[in-house]
User: Fold RapC from Bacillus subtilis.
Amino acid sequence: MKSGVIPSSAVGQKINEWYRYIRTFSVPDAEVLKAEIQQELKHMQHDSNLLLYYSLMEFRHQLMLDYLEPLEKLNIEDQPSLSELSRNIDSNQADLKGLLDYYVNFFRGMYEFDKREFISAITYYKQAEKKLSFVADHIERAEFYFKIAEAYYYMKQTYFSLINIKNAYEIYVEQETYNVRIIQCHFVFGVNLMDERNFEQAARHFKLALNMAQAEQKAQLVGRAYYNLGLCYYNQDLLDPAIDYFEKAVSTFESSRIVNSLPQAYFLITLIYYKQGKHDKASEYHKRGYEYAKETDDADYAVKFEFLQSLYQDQPNEEGIERCFQYLKNKNMYADIEDLALEVAKYYYEKKWFKLSASYFLQVEEARKQIQRSEGLYEIEI
Assistant:
């Protein structure tokens, strides 16, 4: 080996340490180590697998940043976009074996999940699962269980979500430095329990998560805890306490400039005010929420705000409602269709337009059937 050339194995060990900081959301430590590794790569013996491993970890690092805090607040500049990193990984993934194959599919699943392409996310996670035997680190296994549990929840596969989140939680709770993940496990437990209409137990998980998030001083998680508590009350038709918690979520996100989380909270506040007949308040939140959706390039919530426009402001506009449902069908977002079709059905029922109401109740039933059928879609080969 030439003098001054760094062995790839040494850099590989440092990348492993970098990943440990990423998994514990230790942003400053992860940033420092990433910078050190970037310098060492310039003097490292050539190793194509190690370079791909670095690209994968850079991808995972960016996912952490995008979730935890906005870049402006972290004062991190010139971060590559996830799409750029994804293209780099895709162009270098030939002849992958074992652990690298696991990471390619696992991280790509996370990327698809962040885009709300949930079936695609689970498809990649299932490919990663085939290589899980190569993963010796029990914390890494917990990461896998946690991520696939999240995706199963959004596809309303409650049984599979709860099995996996239980597996993840039992590993994390034995550690001293994984409080962020423990908080997130409580979120996943809670939302699944809401789907089972066990609201009291769900609220316990959300309140415990809120207390932990406040102790950790993580604004994103505090806001999310408030949002989930609001959702818990909303699903019980307790609209006033729901609004109180959604308002707290909005205040937390806005004060910390966590704008990516704002469209979701604004959407439900807007919907509640429309349902209560408070159209002036609804219009105010509608305008702000739609602006946030556009600012953050959140196409899903932009379409949902357009749905509210079609239902409540355009007296109503059937073509606009159907455009929204077609968009959601194209993304296999049948859980969202179920929720929104139910809103339309109830709206028409209260207006005594029973024929139209019945047609949307049928769409609710069809969406539920599609959710039940969706499990087989995860086996698509990639």
The two ends are 39 Å apart (CA to CA).
